[in-house]
Design a protein that fits this description.
- The chain has 274 residues and is an alpha/beta fold.
- The protein has two domains: 206 residues, Spore Coat Polysaccharide Biosynthesis Protein SpsA, Chain A (Alpha-Beta Complex), CATH 3.90.550.10; 57 residues.
- It is 43% helix and 20% strand.
- It is built from eleven helices and nine strands.
- Strands 1, 2, 3, 4, 5, 6, 7, 8 and 9 form a nine-stranded mixed β-sheet that branches.
- β2, α2 and β3 form a beta-alpha-beta unit.
- α1 runs parallel beside α2.
- The relative contact order is 0.14.
């Protein structure tokens, strides 16, 4: 089965992380038919050098979509979706690492179920190197449980998904919703009758660390979260109770000291067991 890989890159990314990401995708057990890179605004010379080297080495594999200015993840991915040539698209973040047979496992699921629209899996979060796993984020596996869970927390790990381009476009594609680009897309896809599944295994290593926990704290972050949740409330998929419950939890989480926030995130909101 043919499929595209979609990655958005912006100037703050580290070149060495991008290399690890790309290596994990070009060496999939079922190689992608194309890798679509959205350059979200002007990139650093180091990032451009990495992309040029991969384009030279894998000429037919890489396609670049160049945006004049940084538009944010949602709108960048929306452009990327439009430029993907194949119905099945595997999402990937530019600083994470897919397991070698990630896409093979997902392609199998689509081959087994013609009604499947979105397929994800678990993630392992790590610091410094993927050998230093600090937590595992597990998610519901079946369609009905995914759709109920999605009302309060993301039931799909965004970086792990493979989905059908036609269903994404039917649901309105990615939209600008700061911190909630993926949450809004899952909500809209649910409302458009999409079928979801998560594989009972980890598919991607995801970088974490003190900087991430710091970014998720403070009232400024909470206001962005609140605005995103309000957009989702307006879709009609979640209740006001779901909305206010998640705001309360996020407010508490946002005002915690960074060290406590890290502890809660890794020990209470994540699993340490495979």
């Amino acid at each position: 089965m043919e499929y595209s890989v979609l990655i958005s890159v912006y100037y703050k990314e580290k070149a060495e992380y991008l290399i690890e990401c790309l290596e994990s995708m070009v060496h999939q057990t079922v190689q992608p038919s194309e890798i679509v890179i959205v350059k979200d605004g002007k990139l650093t010379a180091e990032l451009e050098d990495v992309l040029t080297k991969y384009k030279t080495k894998y000429q037919r594999l890489f396609k670049f979509v160049c945006l004049e200015k940084n538009v944010g993840l949602g709108l960048a991915l929306a452009e990327g979706i439009k430029n993907c040539s194949y119905e099945l698209i595997a999402r990937m973040d530019s600083d994470d690492i897919s397991i070698p047979n990630r896409c093979e496992l997902q392609l199998r699921e689509f081959a087994k179920d013609s009604l499947l629209d979105v397929c994800g899996g678990y993630i392992k979060e790590f610091c410094d190197s993927k050998e230093k796993v600090v937590s595992i984020r597990k998610v519901p596996l079946v369609d009905s449980e995914i759709k109920e869970y999605q009302k309060r927390r993301d039931a799909v790990n965004h970086v792990t998904v493979m989905f059908k381009k036609s269903k994404v476009l039917e649901a309105g594609n990615y939209q600008h919703a700061l911190l909630m680009e993926d949450s809004l897309l899952w909500t809209n896809m649910i409302l458009h009758g999409a079928t979801f599944k998560n594989i009972d295994d980890y598919l991607v290593y995801v970088r974490t660390g003190a900087d991430m926990f710091k970014r998720r704290g403070g009232l400024k972050y909470f206001k962005k979260y609140k605005n995103g949740r309000k957009i989702i409330l307006q879709t009609g998929y979640i209740s006001k109770w779901d909305y206010y419950y998640t705001l309360l939890v996020q407010l508490i989480f946002s005002i915690l000291p960074n060290s406590v926030r890290e502890f809660v995130y890794e020990k209470l909101l994540r699993s340490n067991k495979e």
